[in-house]
Specification:
Layout: E1 8-12, H1 22-26, E2 31-33, E3 39-41, H2 49-58, E4 64-68
Antiparallel strand pairs: 1-4, 2-3
Amino acid sequence: MPDETARWSVEIDRDVCMGSGMCIVYAPGTFEHDDETKAVMIDPPGDPLDAVRTAVQACPTGALRLVTDENDAGGA
């Protein structure tokens, strides 16, 4: 599990995103919907890493992928 100091980002597959909003429920400081009701990152450190991880795991379509220094070659 990456620690809070690890650099991280979230990759969003906009072709897969259906706009369920689960990412916004769990990490509202990090995600929002754009005008197409697709997930976008508004502030990568907007929420604690654990909240972002939960948001990624809660995505019903798997459109989100957490990428860290520790796993930049693999999935979250």
